[in-house]
């Protein structure tokens, strides 16, 4: 029946589905019916069962109060979700995943189940990351390289960091940066990188087991996505799609290079301008100012370009005209992921692997656009700047793009909608409108892709460069605790109820997660090897140190430069800035001194360290990959009790068919052709609804 509503443009159509239609659709969807025969499934040895019982008792207070009366739950589901899910005061409790699935459908239920597992697995990662950070804080006073940098008795004069306006400087002025770098560049960094690689594997395995358990409880083990195409267009060939793919690749490369180059020019120009300033306050903490402002600029660009990339990805996908909705969604996700991933991680990749490595040397620097000298890393390396960039990007995206936009934008839209309606008219509508009519004023449901994308980028921040930022899991954990309740409140109170969609997994997102976890091993191997000073310290300690310690390491990393070899017009204008004439300055590199037979060429130490770095990358990558594969092999994808349940139910089905065949033979023998109903149902002893393969057509006989 059709019902007119508050607007001539909006109407509501009430649809009634007869029981026969529901049974037929249930047969098509292969829905299973509950059964009643009981049998017990053992969860393992008595010790395992006792441990499980103890864990259940401990976590009993963390379970949501959903209740057991099925009819009451169905009637009051929205109210229960508001109280036991969409509330910040119960952030410490588990989510009522079963009720979420009943109210919103399996696809939404799987998203929140995955988000809950991810957040739960971040707890051990955050704890270990904090321990690694505290280890750096405790050992900073005993760190020999930073002690040597801070020792004024060394009296090391460093070469200028820019042409003309920058003068010579004392290494001791980098004391603070050296001490801060040790917080993130220490012996525990390697251990944490290995731990996070194994953590990612454990997370993926834990989710597979959790997903399998949910599939069994929700009757999705035999579910097949029989999607019917809503598009009648002819499927395009690879040649037809090539313009779209070429467009996305060329655009990504151009935009990425433009952003990186623009930030490089900003860093170089602002550093030169600050050195030229006559104001003393501007000339103090120049490096910190440039680092922080550049990171904030990168964050603003990332937030803006994320919206642009999302629109472009959708446009490119529409150009391809995919034949099915699923194909459209997967292609859109893949393109959006590629663009947003490149957008978020390009500045980080530049800091980690390119900055400070293509600068040349004193007297023969590399310039861009004629007069801009490529920027150098601080004496302690680029790891500290990489950490600052990661911290600002991660916190900024979480606070501004994720939480503020998700809270502020919907409220702003709601306020604008209310301003268009007269207050008296609004009061009349509130009194006369039905609940389904009021819900029409809520925001439309746009899908789960933005929610997944937000978490996938965060997962990349947590795993890819975790060797340089051990506090990333902690920040992700704190964000996700808020994110779960924020999304819950949004789904319950601010969005229209989405159409329930059945799904047995999270789709292409699992493939992206698994790919990121593999790439993270390689990236962290290169970060430890090339970005940090871990390998140079090891090589010096075991090959060049006279006493097997790190004493003399700082001097070993510095090369000599004769100031008379400066190119004309690049020497410092204030050569007496330190109060004395400088004849030889130092710079961080492994090159032969000017008085050698091969002045300023790479030294033997450089090649030894390079070989050690490459060897470490190969060994680290293969060992960690092997350990990850072993963990993957060790943990079964299907929980043991679920596997036994499925096996027993298959045996039950065989038993039912055998009894049916025996009944047919008996009826044929006595001449009775009337069929008899099957009456050997089974009930599982684990929580959740119990199902067998008997479907809707047998319901009346079984009840």
UniProtKB/TrEMBL annotation:
InterPro entries assigned to the protein according to its UniProt record, in alphabetical order: Anoct_dimer, Anoctamin, Anoctamin_TM
The keyword Protease appears for this protein: no
Membrane topology annotation: Multi-pass membrane protein
Domain Anoctamin dimerisation: 8-65
Localization annotation: Cell membrane; Membrane
Keyword annotations from UniProtKB, A to Z: Cell membrane, Glycoprotein, Membrane, Transmembrane, Transmembrane helix
Residues in Anoctamin transmembrane domain copies: 100-648
GO molecular function: intracellularly calcium-gated chloride channel activity; protein dimerization activity
Domain of life: Eukaryota
Transmembrane segments: 111-135, 187-204, 244-268, 288-312, 332-353, 455-478
GO CC annotations, alphabetized: plasma membrane
Predominant subcellular localization, coarse grouping: membrane
Family listed: Belongs to the anoctamin family.
The protein's name in its UniProt record: Anoctamin
């Amino acid at each position: 029946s059709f019902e007119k509503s508050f607007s001539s443009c909006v109407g509501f159509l009430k649809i009634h589905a007869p029981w026969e239609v529901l049974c037929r659709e249930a047969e098509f969807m292969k829905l299973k019916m509950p059964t009643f025969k009981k049998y017990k499934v053992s969860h393992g040895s008595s010790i395992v069962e006792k441990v499980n019982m103890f864990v259940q008792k401990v976590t009993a207070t963390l379970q949501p109060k959903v209740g057991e009366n099925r009819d009451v739950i169905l009637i009051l589901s929205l109210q229960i979700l508001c109280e036991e899910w969409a509330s910040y005061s119960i952030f410490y409790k588990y989510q009522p995943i079963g009720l979420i699935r009943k109210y919103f459908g399996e696809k939404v239920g799987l998203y929140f189940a995955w988000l809950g597992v991810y957040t739960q697995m971040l707890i051990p990662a955050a704890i270990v990351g904090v321990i690694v950070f505290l280890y750096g804080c405790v050992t900073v006073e005993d760190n020999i390289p930073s002690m040597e940098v801070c020792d004024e008795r060394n009296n090391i004069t460093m070469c200028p960091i820019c042409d003309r306006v920058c003068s010579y400087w004392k290494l001791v002025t980098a004391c603070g940066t050296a001490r801060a770098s040790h917080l993130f560049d220490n012996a525990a960094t390697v251990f944490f990188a290995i731990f996070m690689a194994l953590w990612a594997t454990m997370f993926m395995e834990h989710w597979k087991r959790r997903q399998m358990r949910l599939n069994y409880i929700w009757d999705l083990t035999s579910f097949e996505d029989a999607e019917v195409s809503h598009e009648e267009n002819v499927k395009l060939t690879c040649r037809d799609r090539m313009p779209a793919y070429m467009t996305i690749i060329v655009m990504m490369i151009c935009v990425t290079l433009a952003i990186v180059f623009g930030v490089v020019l900003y860093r170089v120009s602002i550093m030169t301008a600050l050195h030229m300033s006559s104001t003393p306050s501007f000339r103090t903490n120049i490096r910190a100012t440039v680092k922080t402002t550049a990171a904030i600029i990168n964050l603003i660009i990332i937030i803006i370009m994320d919206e642009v990339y999302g629109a472009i990805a959708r446009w490119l996908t529409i150009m391809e005209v995919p034949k099915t909705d699923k194909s459209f969604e997967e292609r859109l996700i893949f393109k959006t992921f590629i663009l947003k991933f490149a957008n978020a991680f390009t500045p980080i990749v530049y800091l980690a692997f390119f900055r400070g490595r293509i600068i040349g040397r004193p007297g023969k620097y590399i310039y861009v656009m004629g007069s801009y000298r490529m920027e150098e890393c601080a004496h302690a390396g680029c790891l500290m700047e990489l950490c600052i960039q990661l911290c600002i990007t991660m916190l900024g995206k979480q606070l501004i793009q994720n939480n503020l936009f998700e809270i502020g934008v919907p409220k702003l839209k709601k306020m604008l909608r209310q301003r268009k309606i007269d207050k008296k008219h609004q009061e009349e509508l509130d009194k006369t409108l039905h609940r389904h009519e009021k819900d029409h004023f809520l925001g439309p449901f746009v899908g789960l892709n933005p929610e997944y994308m937000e978490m996938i980028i965060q997962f990349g921040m947590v795993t890819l460069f975790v060797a340089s930022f051990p506090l990333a899991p902690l920040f992700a954990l704190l964000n996700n605790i808020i994110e779960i309740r924020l999304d819950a409140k949004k789904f319950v109170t601010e969005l229209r109820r989405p159409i329930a969609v059945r799904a047995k997994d999270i789709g292409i997102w699992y493939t992206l997660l698994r790919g990121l976890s593999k790439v993270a091993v390689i990236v962290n191997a290169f970060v430890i090897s090339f970005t940090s000073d871990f390998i140079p310290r090891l090589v010096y300690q075991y090959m060049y140190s006279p006493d097997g310690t790190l004493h003399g390491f700082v001097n070993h990393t510095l090369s000599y430069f004769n100031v008379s070899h400066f190119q004309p017009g690049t020497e410092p204008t204030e050569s007496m800035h330190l109060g004395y004439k400088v004849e030889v300055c130092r710079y961080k590199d492994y090159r032969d001194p000017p008085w050698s037979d091969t002045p300023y060429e790479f030294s033997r130490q450089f090649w030894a360290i390079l070989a050690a770095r490459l060897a470490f990358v190969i060994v680290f990558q293969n060992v960690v990959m092997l350990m990850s594969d072993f963990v993957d092999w060790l943990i079964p994808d299907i929980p043991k009790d679920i596997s036994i349940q499925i096996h027993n139910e298959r045996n039950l089905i065989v038993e039912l068919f055998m009894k049916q065949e025996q009944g047919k033979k008996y009826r044929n023998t006595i001449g009775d052709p009337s069929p008899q109903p099957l009456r050997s149902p089974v009930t599982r002893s684990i929580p959740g609804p119990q199902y067998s393969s008997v479907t809707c057509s047998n319901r009346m006989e079984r009840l």
